[in-house]
Amino acid sequence: QAQIKIKNTSAQDLEVAYDMIGAAGLRSVDEGGRKFLQIDASFGGKVWRVKDGKKEKQKSGDVGWVALKNRYFATIMKPLTPFKRVLVRSTDGKDLVSIVSSQEYALAPGVIRTDDMNFYAGRLDEAAIKPLGEDVLGVVDLGVFGGVSRFLLKVMRFFHGITKNWGISIILLTVAINLLLFPLTIKSFTSMQQMKKIQPHVDKLKELHKDNPQRMNREVMELYKKYNVNPLGGCLPLVLQMPIFIALYQ
Prior knowledge:
about 250 residues; alpha+beta; nine-stranded antiparallel sheet; two-stranded antiparallel sheet; 13 strands; about 30% strand
């Protein structure tokens, strides 16, 4: 926690506002040829994300919090009285810094203005960040399939609670996912075997009607219908598995 106190020591009313550095302290790290550093800020519950600091970017509104993060860690500043603007710029062409601007307010002579704010520096993990407020959990971005990612993470933590070993937990999660996807894998394999079985007939039809593509397509579709084969049956189960693989990567 921190406090900023401003006192009007003059004999007249003043309009007061100030700028300050927002979340800071993380640097861009080369992770196998890929670099990742990002600033997130919340405006009315919606998260504004900036990855590129080549050009200054700013956004105005009620700033609920501002964060600087890499793949695994984050620094977060959450003012208890919302700021009005966030400016993002690059410090040296690769690292980012955020500058936040306070609201403007009138300060009578002798009056002290106090702004309270909370800070967080640590793991980019929902459980660790949650004490800062439910609204700040938006800083943990697991992508389009975030719900699947969180479910898989809960399962892995469940296994870790039993084994006390992350390596074994990952193995158990892998086994569980393969068991879950086993029916789809079998269906895909069966469909590919059926396609392989009728492929000579398909090739024969293509050769026979190579000068008449419309008839060739019609004959092939009738062949699929005759042998009860779905031409998409081999790849469709794989497509259905993709969200799980993407969620695992995240």
